[in-house]
Amino acid sequence: IVLSGGDDRLWKTWGFPDGNILLTGEGHTDWLSGCCFRPSGTQLVTSSGDTTVRLWDLSRRGCILTLRGHARAVRGCSWHSCGDFVASASMDGTSKIWDVNSERCRYTLRGHEESVNSIEFLPFSSTVLTSSADKTLSLWDVRT
């Protein structure tokens, strides 16, 4: 199964090798910039130009949580390997670490001078890697 999102404001899961669409999700009001599966495979997260991050339950085929807090478009998202945290990167120059169980932002990472364009958790760690339009990469320990 492959997951995609695009300018049409939709995410889609595709079955391979046939390439048929298995599921489609709608709810964002602007383009999708990122999407990825929860490590357990039961949910996914999407990021969008509408400034939100959304969690989706695949069995319910719908959005179960909308995370708000960025002032500009969200450029990327990533799940932590434990499945309890989501990271987001925004054009507002910040990144956020979201606790999906408490449904709130745990940390806001500030330090880039321009848009944060991507974010990834390093596997099985509390370290996050961000890249920015200010031509820098940053490593963050989200515990501190």
UniProtKB/TrEMBL annotation:
WD repeat intervals: 25-66, 67-108, 109-144
Keywords: Repeat, WD repeat
UniProt xrefs under SMART domains: WD40
Pfam families noted in UniProt: WD40
A GO CC annotation given for this chain: axonemal central apparatus
One GO term (biological process): axoneme assembly
Protein name: SPG16 protein
Gene: Spag16
